[in-house]
Amino acid sequence: MGAESVVPGGTRVGRRDFMRLLAASGGAGVAGIAAGSARRVSGLSTDPDAAATFTHGVMCGDPAPDGAVIWTRVQPVEGSQDVTLVWEVAEDTTFEHVVAGGSVEATTGSDHTAHVRVAGLNADGRFFYRFHADGSTSRTGCLRTAPAPGSSPDHLRLVFSSCQQRTRGTHYVSHTAIVAEEADFLVHLGDYIYVSDTGTLGVDDYRDVHRTFKSNPLLQDCHAALPCVTVWDDGEFHNGFDRTADAVRTAAARQAWFEYMPVMRDPAEPDRIHRTLPWGDLADIFLLDLRSYRDRAVDNVSSLHRAGAQMHAPDRRLLGDAQMDWLRHGLGTSGAAWHLIGQQYMIMPWRLLDLDAPWIRKLNAKLPRNAGIYAPTEDWDDYQADRKRLLGFLGQEGVENVVFMSGDLHLFFAGTLHEDYDTPMSPTVAFDFCTGSLTADPDPRTLLEPLPRDMAERLIHWAEDWTLAQNPYMAFTDLLNQGYVVVDVTPEETLVTFRTVDTFDPDAAAVTSARFRVGAGADRIERL
């Protein structure tokens, strides 16, 4: 451990003071509290007494070259008093080689959650962390630091996911499967929780939902095993959340989200979550907020209808001007080989009926550009001017190797992005991969009852074929299964693997349903 540890929002301590803090917290010593009495879960130690104090596990997020954010929540022994936590980071799971530590307050004002921005660690490393309080020690979590600026890592492996509902008859087996992928970190694209549109109104309501979701033991195992980088969607607020939502309710939802996620709130911009995570010169990961700045979604899905034509209105915004400028500047100045963009919604167009096909335009040349019946998803299709601004920028500035990682739809998609998706010669400017949901809500086949199950499944597969026929830039779609996506990035290529899991089976394992390759500088997706 270094001479002292500097923790924004925590306490600055030297080694001797840290030892005193650890003893005062009831910890059994720096040299190995987990060695004798702890049990093993996912390869990481857990104090048997921790369940009564650290009831919601631990989390790590936002890997940086010198550290990361670590999080926990403590259940106070008596009443609702503030609790002083001692935290430590080590090179090993027995904590014989502690490299950082300090104290942090879990206050009543933060619902007894605690965040620490750990700094001073070596770049591109794996470490282990834990907390002590009230004579109890939390389970051990894994902390990952990013490669140093200017370094040239040869590989990044991440998982991205979204939509983890708690529904009867489904299980969090996808989370167990994610642990087995041995990724550097997980990117969760939102709908981490699902609130009640009418019953979740104040900050205590939102906190209660977060506590309920975080009580799941498989979710806690997943968070202990690997860092989780998070953004929000409307599940964390209410259905259809946008910039016009009630300000008081929105503030309550945001407060609870920042309390329960491993993200440090910036005092200068306390409501901002869009940010960049660099991974050496291999990749820059841009995380977007497609909810807070958006205009209201369009109610009509037909661009031939007067109301639906608003999808194409030039003044409609999804990202907002400031976030759009930030993203375009970041992409235009990035020196990384790859540019990964994590977002809540698929950016690739999805039409149920293409009304701008060449043969239709020959029949009626007066049809509006990009006409169609679009899927009612509240995604980029409702904000086509913003999409053209972004994709046009990529083409005009020659920004290569852009891969979007999308969520929310509960469906798998893969395809190419073009400046104009109805112009056959329009160049490819990026690629879009959308993940299915982590849990089911409900089995899609039950939505077609009273059709027999096998007939319903055949109808879903027919809908997949129809979708590909109406959207020729799409390379793959799966409207049936749940799961997540694994992304492997090297200087030469990005490999994307769709992993599906039967979330109705508590013993299910993940299987590969499709695998794709995007070569550096490529203009098409290869199906492997």
Structure at a glance:
The protein has 528 residues and is α+β, with helices and mostly antiparallel strands.
Account of the 3D structure:
The chain has 11 helices and 28 strands. The chain has about 525 residues and is α+β, with helices and mostly antiparallel strands. Strands 15-14-13-25-26-27-28 form a 7-stranded mixed β-sheet. Strands 16-17-18-21-23-22-24 form a 7-stranded mixed β-sheet. Strands 7, 8, 10, 11 and 12 form a 5-stranded antiparallel β-sheet that branches.
Terminal Cα separation, in Å? 47 Å
* Unreliable stretches: 1-12, 27-43
Which sequence of strands runs across the widest sheet? 15-14-13-25-26-27-28
The overall average pLDDT, rounded, is 90
Computed CA radius of gyration, to the nearest angstrom: 24 Å
How many domains, as an integer?
2
Name the helicity range: 10-25%
Largest sheet: 7 strands, mixed
Overall form = globular
User: How many DSSP helices?
Assistant: 11
How many distinct beta strands? Answer: 28
CATH architecture of the largest domain: 4-Layer Sandwich
Quaternary status of these chains? Answer: single chain
Q: Estimate the strand proportion.
A: 25-35%
* Full CATH superfamily name of the largest domain: Alkaline phosphatase D (PhoD)
Which CATH class of the largest domain?
Alpha Beta
CATH topology of the largest domain: Purple Acid Phosphatase, chain A, domain 2
Which structural class do the helices and strands define?
alpha+beta
